[in-house]
Amino acid sequence: MSGYLFRNYGSRYISILSRVWSGNSQMMKNSEAALRKTLEAKFPLAKNIVVSDISGGCGSMYEIFVETTEFKGLSTVKQHRLITETLKTEIKDMHGLRIHTSIAE
């Protein structure tokens, strides 16, 4: 088998094209707009919500920034936990997530 189209993963070969195709289905599940919409519903008072796909477009890793007064009185860990709980279904399909939060003035 050609090393260009197939890769050896343990005892089996997987087509590079099938890996790309399955990656695109993940992108459709988790888009920047869909994640932002979910966060906007959870944090209606947010001054700023930014969701960026930092995986090169495949939808496997995101960077999220949420600035809201709803974080007032909460530790950073609790702020981040609110975000991960809000996106718990979406996170299952991700490789990684960077979260940044801020308390709006």
From TrEMBL:
It comes from the Eukaryota. Pfam families: BolA. Belongs to the BolA/IbaG family. This is BolA-like protein 3. One of its GO terms (cellular component) is mitochondrial matrix. It comes from Anopheles dirus.
